[in-house]
Each structure stands twice: as structure tokens, then as C-alpha cells.
Amino acid sequence: MFTSLLVLIIPNANTVITELATNFVCANDYLQHGSQKQLIQGNLEHLVDYITENETDCEIHFHSYSFGTILALDYAYPYGTKPSKNALTYCKSIITIGTPYEFVNSYYSRFYENRQIQPGDSLQWMNIYSTADALGTNFRKDKNAGEAEFGVLGASNKPQNINYEVSPVKGIFDFMMLYSIRVHEMYWDETSEGQSCLGLIYNEMKNRNLI
Prior knowledge:
- The chain has 211 residues and is of the alpha/beta class.
- It is 42% helix and 11% strand.
- It has 9 helices and 4 strands, in the order H-H-H-E-H-H-E-H-E-E-H-H-H.
- The chain has helices at residues 2-9, 13-33, 37-54, 67-76, 85-90, 101-107, 172-176, 179-182, 198-207; strands at 60-65, 91-97, 124-129, 160-163.
- It has a 4-stranded parallel β-sheet, with helices on both faces.
- 22% of the residues are buried.
């Protein structure tokens, strides 16, 4: 009944709900059942292989968004086996934007168990988040902006938190309009003139001599 009410009063609510349902089913297959996980991680490793074999003085910097951040963290901190030679040798940084890490950790509590954590402090990690984003993780024990308090379960390195806000969730109307969900898609604008979190990433990478 609540879903039907949303469809009636909120523009494009049916599209938003359908996309959420589709994304959840795909994510659940990966997280719960391991469906396509080996294929996806294998293809990622092949891509890194190709880059390292064809580029001189190669460095890998993962720029990932939303569920792509889960794939990137899976590559850097694999389950049950040590990271690949490529990951240990060439992976210098990982950037997570709007990562649903906390969502995954809450509903799939064993997903991050038995992780290999060899990259340690050598892997520079930047995390872009919005406190208004219902799916984004700030790696803190509260909902406030600030320095990260933890990282991947068992790993010593924590991400460098970079707060990026568009607009706060102001009340029940924003809640009803699914604003906290739609914020997840507001880390950049589709037009070249629009604002983007990528400027913050560029400055941070430049300060760290990563570019």
C-alpha cells in the first residue's frame, strides 16, 4: 500500500523503486550467493594484467562508485586467499564514492570476515561520502562528517574521509520524496558545467603526489 501511494504522489517513483529492486537483486546474488563473483573478479584481474603488461612504470588507482566500490574492496582485500601479485605490487590507491560498505556489513554480516589485509598502510584510500546519502558510508560510529574511525574489518588502514554535500535532508517531505536515495546519484552532474566531487579527488591525489 505504501509503495502504491508513493507511485501516485511522487514523480518517477515507480522508476526509482524498480531500479532499486533490480540493483538489490543483482547485489544480493553477488553478496549472498557468490553468483558471478568469480567471473567479475577474474575479469578485473585480467584487466589489471593487461595494464601492467602494456604500461611502463605502471601504477593502479581504483576509482569506484556505489556497488563498484564493493568490487574494488573485494579485489584489494580478498576473501580466503592472499591478494594477487598485481594488487600488492601495482595497486597504489583506492577511491570509494558513495560506498554502501555499512549497508553490506549490516545485512551480510559475514561478508567481510576472513579477509586478507596485506595491503595495510601501503594502500592509500580516499572515501567520498555525503551524510545525506542513505547508502554512502562515512566509516564512523555516528552520522556526522569527520575523520574515519574504522576501515575494512581487521585492516589497519582507514580511509581518508572527504565529505561532499549537495543539500541536507530537511524533513518528512524530503524523506517521502526519497531524497536520501536520490542523493546517491548526486556526486556529479551529467553536464560538463555542473559541480562534481571529482575536483576534491583531484586535489587530494595531487597533494599525495599520486598524479
